[in-house]
Structures are given as C-alpha cells and as structure tokens.
Amino acid sequence: MKRFLTVLGVAVMLVLAACTSEVDSPSGSSASSAPPGCDPGLAAWAEAGFSGSMAVVERGEPVCSAGYGLADRAGERSNAADTVFAIGSVTKAFTAAAILDLADSGALTTDDRVGELLPSLRGPVADATLMQLMTHTSGLSGGAGPDHRPLSEEDALAAISALPLMFASGTGYEYSNAAYTLLALVVEELGGGYRSHAASRILAGLPSAGFWDGEPAASGPRAVGYLEDGSAGEPGDFGGPHWALDGNGGLAMSMPDLAAWTHALFTGEVVSPSSAQVLASPVVELGEGQAETPGWVAVDASAYGEPFLAAAGGGGDVGHDAMVVWVPAAERAIAVASNGGAVSAEELLAAVGPALATGGPIPPPEAPGGAVDPDAAAAIVGDYRLDTGGTFQVTYDDGELRVAGLGADAVAALFPPDDAAAVAEHERQVAALLGDDLVALAGTVLADGELRTYVTADTGEGPLLVWYALDAKGVVAAVEEGTDPPALTLATDGDGFAPVDPTGTGPDVRLTFDADAVTVTGPDGAVPAERS
Fold this sequence. Notes:
The protein is an alpha+beta fold. Strands 1-3-2-14-13-12-11-10-9 form a nine-stranded antiparallel sheet, sandwiched between helices.
C-alpha cells in the first residue's frame, strides 16, 4: 500500500475548482453520474482514460459527487457516485482515529510503549510509542507480509518482532505498513477486536464502509480494479486471516462516504475535538512544506496558499488508487478514487492541478493520436531483436496495440531514464540484494512515483520476471513476482506510432516500422531492431 505525496499540493486546487460549476455534464460524456456542482470539463478526462469517482463535502453538506468510466469493463457497468473502492493506505487515517478513540476512553495514551500493550511483541520495536508508530518514526520499514496471503495475528507479531529498526525509535522517519499493523493489533487487544471496533466506532454511520476482504464487508457496487497489464485486481474474496492488511490498507467505501467521514473526523464527531486536533497537528517535518501527522500529511500555506491535510494510497494488487483532502478553512473534504485506465487519479491531479492553481480552467488532455488500423497492426505484430540482445514485442489484442521491452536495452529505449545515475544505482542495489539468485537485469522504469527494476530471478523452479522498488535506504519497498514486462500502448502518429499519453508525462518516444524492422526514436537517438 503505497502513499503518493507528489501531487498533494495540486490536488486541492484541482477539486476545489472542479466542484464549483453549476453546469451539468455535457450530453454524451462518459460521466456515469454528474449532478450540478461537478465541472463538466472532467468528462474530457474520462474520455481520455480516467475511470473512477469523486465527492466533495463542504461544512457537512454534499457539494459534488460523480462517477466516470467503467466500474466493470466486461459487464460494461459504469462507475457512479456510490461505487465502492478499496482505499489502500488511506486506511491508516482510520487506524490512527481508532487509537485516538481509545485514548479518549482512557484505555491508553499515545505515549504508551507498544510492547507494554502487546506482551507477545519482541524485538527493538517494543520500545516504540504509539505516537512514533502513527507518525512513521518508530524505525520500522516495510510490512509484516504480502498483502493477499494468509497471515495470522500470531504470525504478524512474530514477523514484526523479527524486523530490525532502521534507526532508534524517535530519531528518524521511514514510512511503514508494519507500524500500522501493530496499531491495529493494539486495537485488537484493547478495543474488543480491530474489525469490530472499526465497524462500531470508526465507520459508524457510513452505509458503504467496511473491508475489501472479509467481514464486515464494504457494501454497495464495487469497482473492478485493473492492473498495469489490463488484468483484474484482487476482487475482495480473500478469506484471510488478513493481518498483512488490517490497519494499514484493508478498508473500502464510496467516495461520498469517505468525504463525509473526513468532515466528521476533523470536526470532532468521530473522536473528541482535542483528539481531532492531535490528528491535524504536524509532528515530523518532511520538507517542501509537508509534515507528518498521525495518519495524515499536513501541507502548509507557504507551499500552496492554503493549509490542508491529505491521505492517499494505492499501488497494491487490488488496482485502485484513492486520495482524500481536508481543507480546514473551508471545512471542505474532497475524496477521489480510480480503478485503472490510461489516467490514474494521481496522473489526473498532476496534469490538471498546476493550471488550476493559477486560476485557469481545467486543461484538456493531450490529443491521444489516431486509432490504430487493425490491418496495419496485424502486419507489424511480432518480436523485433536489437543488436544488443533485447527484444521489442509488439502485440495487438482487443483493439489495443502495445509494445513491450524484453531486456534492459529494450526497456531503456522505450522508457528513456531522466536520471541515468539514479537508475544505475537502483539496479546495483537490486543486483546486490538478489546475489546469486539474479539471472539478469531486465531494465528499470519510473512508475507510480518509484523506480522499478525488472530482473529475471532464479526461483528454484525456473526463471521468473520480477520487479523491485527500493526505499531510500535500499530496503525493498515493493515487489511483484511473475509480472509482465513493461509496455506502452500505442496510437498512430503520422506515419508512425507514439504512446497514448493524455497527461503528457510519459516517455517521449516514437516508433516507425519498415518491412521487417522497427526504429524506436527517443531523446538519446534511434534504436533499430529486426523482426525475428
């Protein structure tokens, strides 16, 4: 469950502007539901590939709710305002609220050491306080286990007990899912059960809210999440036990419910007003006008013109991204989620926000290029071998022309790095991490704000393509086994092809085909390959 911080500043500007128009969505747009109050300019982004929903609540009253794109491509079911999404790491905001709720009742204090509350916990993290766990200053890194693999309470405690600290508790900052697993285990111990406490105390009054997997389940029509390769993500039928996700990433709900809950939280209706103030108070400075609060990130007025708090999550195997913003001065809560597609929630906000921050209208997406002719696509499908050993793999399925890079040379041609030194260092660290299990490096791309190095690894049962993302300390932050090679979706561009890139932030490359050859041209020149 990954947090996105790079677009939080523009997120506020986007949705404040996007939810003030009194014009209905234009006829024929792909908005599934767009009542007055939602800017019709967002429909163009749905046409360009944004699929999801958003909601805004101001001073307790709904201002805007809308759905865009398809919740289920196979069933052609549209996203709507009440569509349910997994909210990923936004779950941490709810877990922090659960801890503050127990503090309000006198069951604990935020200065309590976690080992005193969980006697079975061992290892150095036992001395960390609850506040240090909530603000990612405990020294823990990573998580207790893979998201959708069974992990019992006992095994979660054992796994976290065995984790070394990256620094002494309270002396540094490192984002950690394991820290929030421990907080959920505290609620389990003192609150009569983590899930039952969440349902009865923290999620009360939210009709759709619950867990993506297990009980009590989120209620309402669910969006199917779509992964980078177009396959469907985890559908929510994982039987558990769920301790790899509980506390740090397991909740799901509609965006109107998420916005309504955020307003209730910060106005003292979920926890006491004094605890709501604790949740809003910066604890750890992160730089660039941002600071960590328990479960949230605070952004100051000097950086963006108006203070706000935000929580965001995604990047897991469900295929959803979600973000929620609280603007105290206006008592405005904004929630947005996406379920895959050419434009994620993060990409939408990054592309649209800067123009709106200066008072401009919502900018249209970049022109997607022309539709691919099926006969022309069929003529160029195949594998194209580079002189340096890699392969461009061109496929055409379901009306979509794609090119994948197999091998580090092919990946570098399709995804030219902005910082070659950073890529080389990331690849060096991954290679050192794998040691003798590394068969070959298979290239590095920038995706979802992180470098991902693809490798062919020896699993003992044959080679397997895997990507790794590392944190600043060189520790594994995310990994995906059995993944597909990195690929681009193409549209026609004159006499060649270019990536479908409505946000204008993707690779600057162009492909031209001639008989049994292809040339990929990018910032560093042309790379030819012959059909094999």
